[in-house]
C-alpha cells in the first residue's frame, strides 16, 4: 500500500512539474519581453554595403532611353498599372510600373511602396513576398488631369529626382533620393576607405526624417529608431554587441508616438542582459 502511494506521489509531482513547465513556456511565448533575442529576419544584421553609387547612376542614364519603350527600368522588365478614385468631386489617378520579382525590401528603409492587387491601391507598409508587387520605374500622380507628383521607384523605394507640383502644374518642391535614402542624409564612417558605416541619419528638408541606425565597428546594428519632423518618436532600441552571431536587445527607450507632443518624458521601457534575459521592465 505504501509503495503504491509512493509511486502515485512521484507521478503526481512529475505531472505537476510538467504542467508548470508548460505554463512557463506559454507565459514566455506570450510575453514579448521574456527574451531579448530578436529574430534576425526582422532586423538588419549589418550595415548596407554602399550608398549613393555615382558610377551606377551614370550607367543607368545611358540605359534609360534605350529601355524606356520596352518598360525595362534599371535592367528589370516591368509591367504598367494604374489606380483611380473619386473623392469630393475630384479624380485621382496614379500611373506606375511594377515588378513581379519577389525582391526582399531593404530593411533599412521606412517607406516601401507596393501595389496591393486585392484592393488595387498603393501602400507603404505591410509588404511581404506574395502579397503584392513592388513599384519599380516611373510614377505619376494626377489630380483632375494635372500632374502633381512624379518620380522614379527602385524595388519599392523612391529613387533619383522626385518633383511636386501645385494644381497649376507649377513646381513646388524637388527632392533627390538614392534607393530610398534622401540624398541629404548624413552618413559617418569608421573607415572611409572601406566604407565601414558608423551612423546613418536620414535628413529631409534639413530635418531628421526616417529610420535612424548606429552600428558597432564590426557593422552589427547597435541602435535603431525613427525620426519624424526632426524629433525622436516611438520605440528606440539598443542592441548588445554579439559579434554578429545574433541580435539581442539591450535596452528599449520609449519616446512620444507623435512629434511635437508636449509634456512627455522619454523613459526606459525594458532592459535585458547579454544572454537576452529580462532584467527590468517598467510596469504601466
TrEMBL record:
Keywords: Signal. Residues 1-21 form the signal peptide. This is Antitoxin component YwqK of the YwqJK toxin-antitoxin module. It comes from Algoriphagus aestuariicola.
Amino acid at each position: 500500500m505504501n509503495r503504491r502511494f509512493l509511486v502515485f506521489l512521484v507521478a503526481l509531482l512529475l505531472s505537476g512539474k510538467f504542467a508548470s513547465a508548460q505554463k512557463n513556456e506559454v507565459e514566455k511565448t506570450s510575453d514579448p519581453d521574456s527574451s531579448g533575442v530578436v529574430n534576425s529576419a526582422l532586423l538588419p544584421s549589418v550595415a548596407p554595403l554602399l550608398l549613393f553609387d555615382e558610377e551606377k547612376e551614370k550607367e543607368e542614364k545611358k540605359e534609360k532611353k534605350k529601355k524606356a519603350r520596352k518598360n525595362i527600368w534599371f535592367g528589370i522588365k516591368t509591367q504598367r498599372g494604374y489606380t483611380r478614385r473619386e473623392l469630393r468631386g475630384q479624380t485621382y489617378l496614379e500611373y506606375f510600373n511594377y515588378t513581379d520579382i519577389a525582391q526582399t525590401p531593404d530593411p533599412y528603409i521606412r517607406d516601401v511602396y507596393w501595389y496591393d492587387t486585392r484592393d488595387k491601391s498603393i501602400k507603404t507598409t505591410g509588404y511581404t513576398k506574395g502579397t503584392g508587387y513592388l513599384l519599380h520605374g516611373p510614377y505619376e500622380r494626377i489630380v483632375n488631369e494635372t500632374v502633381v507628383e512624379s518620380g522614379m521607384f527602385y524595388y519599392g523605394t523612391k529613387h533619383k529626382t522626385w518633383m511636386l507640383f501645385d494644381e497649376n502644374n507649377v513646381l513646388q518642391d524637388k527632392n533627390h533620393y538614392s534607393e530610398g535614402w534622401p540624398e541629404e542624409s548624413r552618413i559617418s564612417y569608421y573607415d572611409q576607405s572601406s566604407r565601414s558605416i558608423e551612423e546613418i541619419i536620414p535628413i529631409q528638408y534639413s530635418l531628421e526624417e526616417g529610420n535612424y541606425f548606429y552600428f558597432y565597428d564590426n557593422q552589427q546594428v547597435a541602435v535603431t529608431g525613427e525620426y519624424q519632423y526632426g524629433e525622436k518618436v516611438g520605440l528606440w532600441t539598443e542592441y548588445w554587441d554579439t559579434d554578429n552571431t545574433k541580435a539581442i536587445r539591450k535596452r528599449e527607450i520609449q519616446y512620444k508616438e507623435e512629434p511635437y507632443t508636449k509634456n512627455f518624458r522619454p523613459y526606459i521601457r525594458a532592459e535585458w542582459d547579454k544572454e537576452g534575459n529580462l532584467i527590468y521592465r517598467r510596469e504601466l
